[in-house]
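[audit] Reproducing an earlier prediction to check determinism. Same input, same settings, fresh worker. If the tokens differ from the archived copy the diff job will pick it up downstream; this log only records the rerun itself.
[audit] input (385 residues):
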Amino acid sequence: MTNQSMNRPITVTHIISGDLWAGAEVQVYNLCKALNEGDDIAVNAVVFNPGILHDKLLELGIPVTLINEETSGPITIARGIASHSRDYQSDIVHTHGFKENVLGILGKDLARVPYSVRTVHGNPEHRLSLKKPQKWLTSRLDILLGALRQQAVIAVSSQLEQSLQPLFPGKVHKIFNFVDVGEIIHNWQPRHHLPGPPPSVAGIVGRLVPGKRMDLFIRTIALLNDQGHSFKGRIIGSGPLEHELRSLTKDLGISDKIAFTGFVNPAMTEISKLDILVMPSDHEGLPMTLLEAVSLGIPVVAHNVGGIPEVLAGWERSGLVDDQTAQAYAKQIVAITSRMATSEKTHDPASNDITHPPGFLDKFSSQQSSQRYVELYAGLVTKPH
């Protein structure tokens, strides 16, 4: 019997760690919020950690079960997922992350939930090789479970779609990460991002970990000032490298030009004040920070990886970098500043229009993308066996 014949919404259970408030967590929140506003999907969730995501989902009135991984082993978590799924009569278990994939699949099989999908939010931060057999084996297990026990794999960018197709043939669906552009504009009152009086403020957002390349951002700010361009930098986030990064600012003589804000929630409190956003991460999927900044028309210089080029293509307020050096980032920042200074001459000061990349609202708005999820879920539960 299909959900249509039962005349009730499709019940989808999301499984996510929730230990951080980062890109995947923000996207899960945006998705649950968008689905919860409609009538087609009954949303609920299982999270493995107390924290921001857990609390924000509860604020939306979404049922959430907390199975704390600090005090629960894998079998206990899987049984908890199964119990939750039976209680809410889940039709689909939707997993977000490796650990969530494995435990979610085990839990859904214990509860005999008929369908499961996963979202792949980004590329792995480390290349897998037989030199690290445990990581290689767990990755193989994850892929095998996805191929055998899940019915759909969602890629958040075209680059991810291409890399996942050979692993999950016939199961990959591209659905971009998305934001509520109207809500962001309403909440953060965008200003027109044309060059103001110096110093300009460049910012970077994320965990202070090696892959985010905060060190490269700091060296870029130092180089810009050495070249005679007045810039200050803001590092928005926290993490294990903070002491090392603070030492780097002292070594480069720019400790007075770099501010460490620590973790800020919501990050838009700081992002909305930036003159330019810099994203030098070694690896990315489709960053939520990027979509949020672009929603306000904030210029972006970013590493040419993952889904970033799809967002910024054809936008004069952006620059992509292939060479991971301070020289390359500084060059793009100066070029954007110059282009915007030129455009200021023809800009109407009375205009409040926000400039977005071509097609941005069609590709990355909440209404378009959330409907694609509804269609995917419906296609699974109504598909003949």
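[audit] rerun output stored. Observation attached for the diff report: The CA atoms of residues 128 and 242 lie 27 Å apart.
[audit] end
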